[in-house]
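Re: your question from the hallway

Yes, I did run it. Sequences:
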Amino acid sequence: MRGVAGRAGRRFVSSLPALFGVLVFTFLLMRVLPGDPAIFFASGPNAGQAEIEDIRRRMGLDKPVPEQLLLYLRDVATGNLGRSMTTGQPVLNDLRNRLPASLELTFCALLIALVLAVPLGILAALRPGSAVDHGVRLICTLGVCVPTFVSGLLLIYVLYYLLGIAPDPTGRIDIFAAQPPEVTGFLLVDAALAGEWEAWWAAASQLVLPACTMALFVLAPLARMTRASMLAVLTSDFIRTGEALGLSRRRVILVYALRNALLPVITIMGIVFSTMLGANVLVEKVFSWPGVASYALDALLSSDYAPVQGFVLLMASIFVLVNLVVDLLYGIADPRVSIG
Amino acid sequence: MSALLEVEGLRVEFGTRHGVVEALKGVSLSVGPSETLGIVGESGSGKSVTAFCVMRLLDRAGRISGGRIRFRGEDITRAGRRVLAPLRGAAMSMIFQNPRAALNPIRPVGAQIADVIRAHEAVSAREARDRALALLEAVRIREPARRLEAYPHELSGGMCQRVMIAMAIACEPSLLIADEPTTGLDVTTQRAVMELLAETTARRGMAMLLITHDLGLAAQYCGRIAVMEQGQVVEEAAPDRLFGAPRHAYTQRLVAASPRRDSSVAGLVGEREPEPVTSSGRRLLEVAGLRKEFGGAAAVEGVSFHLDAGESLGLVGESGSGKSTISRLVCRLLDPTAGSIRFEGEEIGAIPAGRFHKSRWRREIQLVFQDHGESLNPRFSAFDCIADPLRRLLGMREGAQLRARVEECAKRVGLPGELLGRFPHQLSGGQKARVGIARAIAPEPRLLVLDEPTAALDVSVQAVVLHLLDRLRREEGLAYLFVSHDLNVVRMMCERTIVLQAGRVVEEGRSEALFAAPKAGYTRELLAAIPHFEPRGEPEAEPVLIQRTQPMPG
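Structure:
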């Protein structure tokens, strides 16, 4: 256990240079992108040159780029990510308000994806080449091929427009429902803490469609990985031992094979989670989800530097964090890791 | 007394890409209660397939196409899982080669033993655990209470096999099938595991089906032995008769090819003894005070030896003795921590391993590896494998000269010229060994380092390859540094032998003298642990009590 913690610590320290690189890279990237934020944020099309210059000075854009970078790094080091020109709020506040929405969506989507993908992968691996295997392959292929905005819209069309089962696909909670008091920012958790089950239900039903849309998208890597590693494990010697000594089929598959097969799935899970968090911008847009990705997209379109830089830094940090968690999980799941 | 297990005319087919292959062609065997039957044969003879058939563990591609298997009078040839599951583990059990892989890597061994108990008996988790503890004691694992929580990777190979045995005997089966149970283990560990198996089966009145390629092992532990060749049992008899007066031609060949205490390389392949090699007396290699540390722990400590031109020196010892490390240091694939390696009087130990391939000494010292399949580039044809060192070390260009040189090397190792275009996977084990040897001698080295060159080969192929190596040495005046765990092979191949233990030299001397009258206790242990079969003689009767100078490895 100590070894695992040590490994995690080392991994964290070794990822710091990468984080710094991301910081500098995003900064420079934003500077070379076309578009002048000062013109964008000027009062109107007929704003005078003097006003634009004034805005530029206030934003610090009149200084040379290296100096801007140093100032920016100093700000980041002191926990100041700048102020968004679009919302007028500090970026840190905006991100803090919107991150729980994205995280809640991503967590739920990942959970749904895992609950579907692991059994599907096992079924496919137990009978390779069978109808079940081909069926799973078809589902996975569809999930990957169909872009999330298409599958999202399809789900809305069928479940909301045609059947009317799903609620109005806008936002995290029905506007008429009472918001639970904010504790964590996760609506499901807050509602449950406050015991407001009506609000919980409202939030949950809003969440189902976007979460399913995203889950469908990441079903493929998880299910295929489960199938592949399950197939490999099922041919290994210790499975044969279990069979030779008369263990029940259930025990052989669930305890002996699956636990070993899940080791690579844990790694994939970390990657999938990080990808989802950043890549769910389309889902957030389709469902008017107030998450960080759609926030960053809006900022990017209006050349609003600070939120984009803040978003990329946030994503990079989350990526590092997720990898740490995966490392820890792996160390717990596989006793060989801490030694070797 | 009726037989416990009866196999009659068993036929098994495997569906492969090249059509159906018949692996068993009518095998008949029977094992009585508390009897030990050995099945010997070389790879591909069908001995393991027979065992897997009895347990009904054949993989999907295999199919029983004829014959019958009866266990305790009941026909289980076509029995389903519902019949088999209660039998497996409880009435008949199996232990496997490579014990570490046979155990679940992420489950404590105690839990795995308890799994088997609870699969067959309705006992509480606590009781299963207590019984697992008692079983670990029964298979003589030290500190069993602590080992219950251990994972397989924390145990040695011998201990893993003991755990496997504990699992197999947990529910008191009447038949135990042991498929190459000690292959890959050190001789002393092998002896300890086999003694445990023999004693356990005897005490519990279990029958055992011992599958092995080692005739000595079969002779020592089996009451009756069946010899298999190409999916058929060609001869079956008690060991004395079988090895004393083998009737079938294949058995005779097998017996002749197996190294014994008194056999010679020429004798294995039925040829006349050549003249003994007379040493040139010219120093080729001089190693002094060699030391190699890995992560602070010394794997090799203060080893010194020398080798004359044309001489053959054997390095023997168990795993962890440092013999492979020494061979890699001499080959200059590893850098020594301290000490000198002088070749032709020049210090080559100081040349960094990473740059040694550029040195002019690289072509003088060549290697023959243990795994001939793995050590050949799968995308190189046999021709390219042999030509590669000529291109790289001698700078030869494509053309008639290179082709002639490769063909000559192939001829010297007895590799037919038409095989040169083939890729490694299209060659047999023996042919791959020849390619590996041809590659090593291609740049005309003066020293060949052979790291367990025949450990992965069948005995009959081993005999031919050993004979080839011996002939090459005589013809080319090569010096050999021969690393092996097989003491009989080293005795035949080497004039002098060094015995290593835990990175240090324990004993050194002329091979005949050393093997005939070992001085060090450790050498005596190693020699005593080799299973013998003596034609016309009694298989060693008295159980030698081993006084270990080292803690039990297994």
